[in-house]
């Protein structure tokens, strides 16, 4: 590593007390947990309402754009193998303004993302009960699971927590794969005609709703100080988790719109339950509701832990109050950061609706990416010897900057106003 980069690290980065207990499988699980969370369960209906059957194209385009951004993050994970993700990359390279911008919007985006996952848990839990309840009941259930998981994460050491998350996360992946396979026997090509009922503009507009479904890879970088050989493991885990996510999300989108007419998906609070009922029969709703619960719990827990690392790092660097930058002596978890983050998630859940939460999360996370692109560009410009051998990768900073600016410009007025 070039001398000037080493000097930046030695001057600005303080030693951490996290234990490196997570390997490639565990790191990939963190990413898959967030990428395969409640987004596909909750947002497929809302996205279909904007794009119609062309929501398939929406997932395909979003997956490609997100994978390019993943490659940029993977490069930074190789060069700067430290916790904090985009915040750390921006702060160490661009200074306080870049670091604060990226860190603040990452933390805010993670809070909104947790709200989305908590709502997913509530909706699918209530669907199992078969109760027709007012919307505020789902919000209170969402707040309850948020505070419960925050308390559980505070008490549980890292390795035990990851083992439990692994069962939940990969169990959800298994259920989604079963749905993809069984839905193929009930697919109806007529359901995707017309493909573009709202034009190609609708296809692109739906990206602003679902982009959050492809953002979980950055959670791996947030936990780099707990990962073995992070300079190698973090980039690999990011790419693996993203490829798994793109494949499953795209296949689920195909399964959904070919099995159930898109306007029926729009009208449902739990759209994949409709797909499961046609694919598995009368009890299909139970299996997919269980999957929705597992996905929501896995994503909520992963994002909550990652969010606390973000707040912890910013607390250590005095962007947030000092007490947020301290670890619990017994569990080595940022207890205060976890609880404060959960409290903000609860406030969001009680204040705004699902569409606003999804768009606000996407807007915040996209803004957080802009300084990260500039940070990689500065590293390449000042340290040409660490540029990747593949010349096309040298264009990643500029390409990702254009992608994320373009996505911001396509977002609706709710997101722009926020």
UniProtKB/TrEMBL annotation:
Its main location: membrane. The chain crosses the membrane at residues 21-44, 56-76, 97-121, 133-155, 167-187, 199-220, 240-262, 282-300, 336-357, 401-417. It is a multi-pass membrane protein. GO terms for cellular component: plasma membrane. Keywords: Cell membrane, Membrane, Transmembrane, Transmembrane helix. The keyword Metal-binding does not apply. GO terms for molecular function: transmembrane transporter activity. The keyword Nuclease does not apply. It is found in: Cell membrane. PANTHER family: AMINO ACID TRANSPORTER-RELATED, INNER MEMBRANE TRANSPORT PROTEIN YBAT. This is Amino acid permease. It comes from hydrothermal vent metagenome.
């Amino acid at each position: 590593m070039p001398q000037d980069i080493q000097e930046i690290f030695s001057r600005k980065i303080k030693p951490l007390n996290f234990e490196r207990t997570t390997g490639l499988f565990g790191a990939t699980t963190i990413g898959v947990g967030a990428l395969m969370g409640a987004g596909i369960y909750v947002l497929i209906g809302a996205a279909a309402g904007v794009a119609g059957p062309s929501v398939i194209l929406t997932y395909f385009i979003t997956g490609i754009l997100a994978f390019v951004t993943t490659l940029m993050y993977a490069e930074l994970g190789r060069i700067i193998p430290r916790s904090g993700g985009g915040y750390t990359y921006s702060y160490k390279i661009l200074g306080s303004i870049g670091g604060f911008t990226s860190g603040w919007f990452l933390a805010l985006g993670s809070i909104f993302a947790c709200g989305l996952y908590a709502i997913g848990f509530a909706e699918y839990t209530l669907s199992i009960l078969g109760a027709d309840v007012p919307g505020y009941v789902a919000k209170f259930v969402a707040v309850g699971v948020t505070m419960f998981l925050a308390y559980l994460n505070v008490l549980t050491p890292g390795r035990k927590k990851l083992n439990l998350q692994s069962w939940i996360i990969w169990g959800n992946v298994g259920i989604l794969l079963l749905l993809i396979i069984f839905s193929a026997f009930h697919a109806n090509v007529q359901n995707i005609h017309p493909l573009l009922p709202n034009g190609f503009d609708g296809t692109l507009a739906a990206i602003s709703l679902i982009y959050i479904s492809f953002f979980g890879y950055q959670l791996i970088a947030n936990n780099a100080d707990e990962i073995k050989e992070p300079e190698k493991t973090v980039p690999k885990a990011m790419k693996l988790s993203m490829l798994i996510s793109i494949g499953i999300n795209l296949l689920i989108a195909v399964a959904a719109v070919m099995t159930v007419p898109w306007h029926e998906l729009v009208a449902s609070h739990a759209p994949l339950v409709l797909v499961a009922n046609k694919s598995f029969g009368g009890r299909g709703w139970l299996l997919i509701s269980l999957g929705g619960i597992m996905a929501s719990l896995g994503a909520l827990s992963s994002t909550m832990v990652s969010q606390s690392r973000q707040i912890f790092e910013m607390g250590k660097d005095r962007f947030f109050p000092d007490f947020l930058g301290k670890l619990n002596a017994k569990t080595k978890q940022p207890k205060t950061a976890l609880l404060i983050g959960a409290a903000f998630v609860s406030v969001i859940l009680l204040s705004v609706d699902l569409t606003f939460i999804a768009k606000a999360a996407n807007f915040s996370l996209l803004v957080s990416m802009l300084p990260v692109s500039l940070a990689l560009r500065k590293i390449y410009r000042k340290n040409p010897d660490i540029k990747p051998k593949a010349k096309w990768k040298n264009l990643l900073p500029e390409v990702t900057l254009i992608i994320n600016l373009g996505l911001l410009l396509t977002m609706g007025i709710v997101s722009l106003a926020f």
